[in-house]
Amino acid sequence: DTGVSQDPRHKITKRGQNVTFRCDPISEHNRLYWYRQTLGQGPEFLTYFQNEAQLEKSRLLSDRFSAERPKGSFSTLEIQRTEQGDSAMYLCASSLPTSYETQYFGPGTRLLVL
Amino acid sequence: AQKITQTQPGMFVQEKEAVTLDCTYDTSDPSYGLFWYKQPSSGEMIFLIYQGSYDQQNATEGRYSLNFQKARKSANLVISASQLGDSAMYFCAMREGPWWAGNMLTFGGGTRLMVKP
Fold first, then answer.
1. Smallest CA–CA separation between B25 and chain A, in Å?
2. What integer pLDDT is reported at residue A104 of this predicted model?
3. If we measure between CA atoms, which residue out of B32, B44, B56, B103 comes closest to residue A97?
4. Which residues lie below 8 Å from residue B61, measured CB to CB, with a gap of 6+?
5. Residue B7 above 80 pLDDT?
6. Rounded mean pLDDT of A17-37?
7. How close A28 comes to chain B (CA, Å)?
8. Of the four listed, A6, A60, A78, B8, which is most buried by Cβ atoms within 10 Å?
9. From the centroid of its chain, how far is CA B63?
10. Which residues of chain B have a CB within 8 Å of the CB of A101?
């Protein structure tokens, strides 16, 4: 049973460039979450999908951020016109809707904006 | 107010001893879930243990147990017989609302545990 995978694992970009990250959840997990973690802090929620529907977005998700999950399987997170403050670890998690719903996390994509 | 508070930024424990990592939470929702995750230096968040607000017994998973005190709104993680591989950041997290609602997790600031040989 493969876990959550994320690609790329690391990304270095220049300020103003666009970047896109991909997350492949555990198969059959219909819920998918994106979080952002800055150095020394706990992860912060960005957005959540159930199947292909984006059901919740944090106020942290500015207009420059967009997420999709077109067929209810993998998801992409795009950041347009990156800023230095976007430098962080971007974590993806997936879950099944069970009574003890547990979110399983991928290895993360570490973004550095120069 | 912070929803999840972890008051210990860093802790040392001797190998083979037990250690307790503190977590207090704040919610007015009667239905919630509490989680502990381990994050080694590689960055991946590893699920350790879960406690539901209506669970009568404290959760246990191998060497991990959760000391759930509902009235005090605390959910401390106890690691028995510490191993060198337990050195990592530990995060307490809460899901507010029933499980079927699919709510986000709110994380605390974490505790860095260092196991001494």
1. 14
2. 93
3. B103
4. B48, B49
5. yes
6. 95
7. 15
8. A6
9. 13
10. 33, 95, 99, 102
